[in-house]
Amino acid sequence: MVSSIGQEGTHQTATTTNTPSSHAHSDIPDPMLALYRRAAPECPGLSWTVLAAIGKIETDHGRHPTMRSSAGAVGPMQFLPATFRSYAHPVPSGGKNPPTPWDPVDAVHAAARMLCATGAKNGDLEGAIFAYNHSEQYVRDVLRTARRYSRGTASGPATSALAFAHSHLGRDYVWGGDGPHEGGFDCSGLTKAAYATAGVTLPRVAEAQYQATQKLAPGQPLAPGDLLFYGTPGNLHHVGLYSGEGRMIHAPRPGTNIRYERYKYPGHDFYAATRVTLTNERR
Fold first, then answer.
1. Cα angle, residue 70 at apex, residues 65 and 74 outer, rounded to 5°
2. What are the tens digits of pLDDT across the range 194-227?
3. CA 217 to CA 219: how far, in whole Å?
4. Burial letters for 230-258: b for 16+ Cβ neighbours within 10 Å, e otherwise?
5. Would you state the pLDDT for residue 172?
6. Which of 33, 27, 46 is nearest to 111 (CA)?
7. In this structure, are residues 236 and 271 in contact, taking their beta carbons and an 8 Å threshold?
8. 64-72 long-range contacts, Cβ below 8 Å, gap at least 24?
9. Which residue has the higher pLDDT, 21 or 4?
């Protein structure tokens, strides 16, 4: 188990290329910034910004005067010794041998492995962070800090699509809806309209949108603006717009509103993700 200095509570055993923001450069010591960015690729889909946010909340990137919590957790990432042993091997390059939770290299790589094992590798980033510290407030604090550390990765059409979808948060789901003039959107109506603002033409329904866009291999890191599809081959019934950090914005179903949600929500039937490319742009 692990326990936090910055947030009291317990942690139970159980995309990496974001450009650092100016705040990240000013707040994170250079060796720690490099370490977070090196360790995150151990878990496809885990952003270094999440590791950095945990390091910030736990010990201010190793600057806490004792790096000991009242629950007995130690080191820059606040591992209880028993939990650390579960994620300490293989010893990362530059780490201590035998590994120790006091060593930044060992601790950050172990944190990446723990997050991966507790949900990050399956897209459940919020669940993985909650496993690190059983507090919903902790999850919110980590994600908020992570966003401040990244310049973001959405660009071009994806930026416009996400901005459009965000501007319609709270609008009603309407079956077959294509916009405010029809009272709202359904899932594929939202994604089609969102990309239309960037000059990109998508087909109207989820199955056709899947067929028309670039398929991502299983485990390939998602980027903001990617399309997320649910169902089975030939029967894709839902699509959402990936917004980063394991979340999407989507129009879920009748009786709901456009909202942000974990893209691997309880009971999901996520099938695959695709990327909208320049070949989808209008001629």
1. 55
2. 999 889 999 999 999 999 999 998 878 888 899 9
3. 6
4. bbeeeebbbbbbbbbbbbbbbbbeeeeeb
5. 95
6. 46
7. yes
8. 64/5, 64/6, 67/5, 67/102, 68/5, 69/3, 69/4, 69/5, 69/8, 70/3, 70/8, 71/1, 71/3, 71/8, 71/10, 72/3
9. 21
